[in-house]
Each structure stands twice: as structure tokens, then as C-alpha cells.
Description:
Number of domains: 1
Largest sheet: 8 strands, mixed
Bound molecules: ligand 48F
CATH architecture: 3-Layer(bba) Sandwich
Oligomer: single chain
Amino acid sequence: MRSLEERISRAIWRHTARDWLDLSRVDVVIVGAGPAGMTAAKYLAEKGFKVVIFERRLSFGGGIGGGGMLLHKVVVDESAVPILKDFGIRYVYDEEEKLYVLDASELMAKLAADAINAGAKIITGVHIEDVIYRDNPLRIEGVVIQWSAVPLAGLHVDPLFVMSRAVVDATGHDAEVLKIVSRKIPEARISIAGEKSAYAEVAEKVVVEYTVKVLPGLYVAGMAVAALHGLPRMGPIFSSMLLSGKKVAEIIAKDLSSTTS
Ligand code: 48F
């Protein structure tokens, strides 16, 4: 009879290996488990696409957890209410400010839970350090993955790969994936304009408007859109993050449905 210690280890090895074999090729890799990434994940997974979110922290939520200046509330406007309803996220309408107020922890937990229930995987502790590309024609075909602990420890460890039909940069203010592509694939002609100062009303609109396919196989959502296009920031109002996640899911679903896997 195996000891409990041995059985614990074997169960974890076996099921981790099964998951990673399955994840060696997916339909969509989403980089970053913030509001934009998790919203996109649910809408894509429920259409039947195989979706994985890689998040370098050990928790999901991105910038949601900090609420507004560490206060545990965030707001949205009416444009995001249908999405809140899709996820079963509760809110209170503030008559005076004409805004919907929600608990940051409920937003994080339910975005993640619904994405997972729809069939998406969220893998934490994994850092995307590069992309996989092909030329003639230029396209992105996956990501280069590493345990987050490796760069933190300053170790030189070669990474592994995940192939995918679409990659979404949902890494927030730093647009990390796009920055890598702009630096390492000059023929992609991506330049990162950098986010502008706060102008919430405009920011909320244009972030959604500029949520686009960047290159074949590469998409952007959330605050990474602002970094790419030089758009203003909006602070702890999250409508555009949710709407941008939903929009990128619609763009990808259309693109992937028109090509064979
Ligand atoms: O920053 P984040 O929440 O991005 P978002 O979805 O939402 C922005 C808002 O939270 C807020 C705002 C709007 O109201 O201004 O800031 O655009 O989530 C991005 C996630 O990506 C992870 C990071 O840890 C965070 O959880 N991330 C960033 N770079 C990488 C990454 C990387 N290279 N590999 C894996 N995860």
C-alpha cells in the first residue's frame, strides 16, 4: 500500500501532466487574469473554444482586488450591466452619481468562476515571456511559458511552449505581450504609444472602440489597448474592461469560425 505522501504526489503529477498535455495546443491563450481576460475567457469558452488563461501571479483578478485606492468597491456604468447579469454579479445603483457600485471581491470571484464554469482553464503562477511566430505570412501561433518563480529567482531556465490559434494580450497597463512583439518582431511594425493621463469619460469609450486584432493570431483587450494606442486611463470604473473583453471574444470567435483548426 502506498503512503499518503506518495499518493498525494502521484495524483498531482498525473493530473497536472494530463492537463498540460491537453494544453499543448489550444484555440485561445489569454495572457492575464484581469477583468478583460476573464470576461473574454467566459464568452469564448461558452462558444466551445478551448481557452486557457495564463496568469503570472498566484491569484486572479488583476487590478480588481485593489478596488478604488484599496477601498473594496468599484463602479461601472449602465453599458456593463448586461455583462454583470451574464456573470450573476450583484450591484447597487447609486442614484446620486448615476453609477452601479459593486464589491471588488465579488467581481473577481464571479468573473473567474464563470469563466471556469464555461470551460476555460485559469493557470496561475505562469509567466508569458515570449510569443511563437511564423512568417510568410506573418502570424502569431502561440506563447512561450515559464514558471513565474524562475525570473523572480533570477535563474536561467529554458521555457516551454503552448500553440494556439489566437493569443490575447490582456496584461493591463504594461501591454507586456505587445511590447515583446514590438521589440522582437520588427516586421510586425507594432509601436506602443503608452497610456495617457486620466480622462475617464473618453477612456471608457475609446478602449472598447480600439479593442482589435493587432496581427493575425494576436489580439488585445483591456488596459493593454490604452497602452498600445496612447489612450487615457479611467481609474476604478470597469465597464470598458468588461466590454473590451466581450468584444475581443466576439472578434476572435468570428475569426476562428471562419478558419479551420
Ligand atoms: O491589470 P489587469 O487587471 O488588466 P485589465 O484586465 O484591467 C485593468 C484594470 O484592472 C484597471 C484599470 C481599469 O479600470 O485601470 O487597472 O486590462 O490584469 C492584467 C493581469 O495580467 C497579468 C497581471 O499579473 C494581471 O493579473 N500579467 C501581466 N503580464 C503578464 C501577466 C505576463 N507576462 N504573463 C502572465 N500574466
